[in-house]
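Hi D.,

Good news: the full-assembly prediction came through. Inputs first.
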Amino acid sequence: MTAATPNLDRADARNAAREARKRKLQAFLFVVPLLVFIIFAFVAPITTMLYRSIHNPTVANLVPETLAALAEWSGDDMPDDAVLIQFAADMKRMANDRTSGKLADEINRALPGMSSVVKSTARALRRVDDAEIASNGATLLKDANDRWADPATWRALKAAGKPYTDSYYLTSVDLERDADRSIVQRDTQIYVKLYTKTLRMALIITLLTVLLGYPLAFYMAHASDKMANFLMVFVLLPFWTSLLVRTTAWIALLQTNGVVNSTLMALGIADEPLEMLYTQFSTVIAMTHILLPFMVLPLYSVMRGIDQSYMRAALSMGSKPLGAWYKIYLPMSLPGLSAGALLVFIISVGYYITPALVGGTDGQMISNIIAFHMQTSNNWELAAALGSLLLVIILLLYWLFDRFVGASNIKLG
Amino acid sequence: MMKDLNIDTFLKFDDVKKSYDQKNLVVKGFNMDVQEGEFITLLGPSGSGKTTVLMMLAGFESVTSGDIAIAGKSINRTAPYRRNIGMVFQNYALFPHMTVAENLAYPLAVRKMPKDKIKAQVAEYLNLVELSAFGDRRPGQLSGGQRQRVALARAMIFEPTLILMDEPLGALDKNLREQMQYEITRLHKQMGFTVIYVTHDQAEALSMSSRIAVFNDGVVQQCAPPAELYERPANAFVADFIGENNFVPGRVESIDGATAKIVTDGGTIVAQATADLTVGGACRVSVRPEKLFFPPSTHAHDNALTVRFETRIYVGDFIRYYFKLPDGTDIIVKILNDLSAPEFTDGAEAQLLWLASDCIAFQAG
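Then the structure:
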């Protein structure tokens, strides 16, 4: 036997590299469809949303010349008449293009009450001669509405004209910029309260699913296969019925003349029907029910993997059952508990349908407000900012979880 | 604890029965007296009820009827955590989220022992199983044999009255198993604790135990020291289950005290008689493969059978010969691989010789 050379010669190395490349390419081809899907269905929308929350070019596109003229303006006194004339010309153009309504909406958000001002001014300037505007636009504008003589109006226009803005994020934490651009509290405090309420409700729901799910999963994990499969059907049953049907069932149960109230009254426990539907209570109850499987499944699969000899060993060493559970079983089932809690918490923070149907005003969560801004108030930028902030909060909580529990402690099966 | 219990029974099983399904008994009246310091092995095929007995003793299964008593006190109704019985599991059951030292400290911490005493005792037992350098490791970072030793130390560290071992070496490979058998025997001698050991590996049982209880079908077939079990099996099951055995079918011609004359197809032989043997009844004569030898031999012999050579298997330290009796029964002979090991041609006739004291006649059926 001749001694083998320890290293590859050049041809060998080339062959090995080619093989490795081929394997990598094959592996990549397997995931291409999913990758394309994820980019289109997940990465792109989220990027757009994040971008949209800071980028609003509507005003900048509507009155670019006015904004260019305003660029030099200090913001303390009234801007030059030239600016006003330019704006009057823009207003006339927009009145004829029927785009003045868009401008009205945008400025109104920066300075409430401006919607009607812009609209009426647009109407007033629509039929005015171009030459007349060029010579006398400033006066015409101030005549149409005296708020055009107020520097605050122009500051609002200038602010709304910036294509990139942090104002939506400020709004989503109940802050705004005042006249001299410093950050102050808004008069109406909505969103911070809503975020805290959402997180609190999600926490309560998570705790309830733990309380209900942990003993069930424990029992299932130690029951015979037949019993465990039987119970598993009941755990999975909610997945086989429509979410809408389940939520509607809760309406039937909880409403004023519903099953629960009539039972309570028939038993003489309550004298008059309790207000249960359209409250935080109903949202929490219905969501606990809907999200319970997400707690039970990871718990069960982790617990199934814990041999009963661990508990027996602890008992044989003199530990009482509860102590053995706390010191031995709980740490060993923690990966399932973490996974379940994280799943339930994150899903419930962003839940929409159930609070929308059974929550009333009291049980609304942040996602309902996001939906409101997208569908009713048409403020997509604010919706995007609220959504992004929610994403940030969830990432932050995940980071905290990773710090204290460790992400490696999550096990789904 | 170290009372003179030589005459007193330390652990007593009194007609213990167990049924899981309220229909069939898994353990059918188990009786045994264990002296302190004994190493008792429950040996049997899987499903024979030996693990159930262990679980009842540990308190993880209830006793359907009968009584288990330690030092004269029934423990039937004692909770497992009050029994003070150490246990070693087949999968070791070391707590994966604790270090080796924390694992050992667990039973002591549960007993609210002061911290410095715990530390000293953990160090002592780590030293005992020769793992002093491994206290800070997690069980996952240890090899199978090391885990086994930690499990042993953990079962001993709180000085239990009794240590139960449920197939503790089942997960180890052959070499490690032999090493651990030695280790367990050493610790047993050194510490003097009482062991109830469950296994289905007879070599393990024979080499370690003071007494072995052979289980089959929920009943103890024989409970005796290893040598007696091997040399004097009480019935055909034990003779067949423990070690290898040849069974020569025959008919009892006469019984003369402890010996019987048996007529077989290959000739008449003399064998030890079991109590239930009847004259004229069918019987099976068991003789171990290593007790058979070939002529010419300087050994004395009582019995000789003519057999036909089938094949010869070279095993290494010994050679296995396969023969057939005229009626087709297989006979195996084990001969040490030395110069006396003969060669046969295919189908050749051969004589097998052995002593009457090396064979036992059991009632057939």
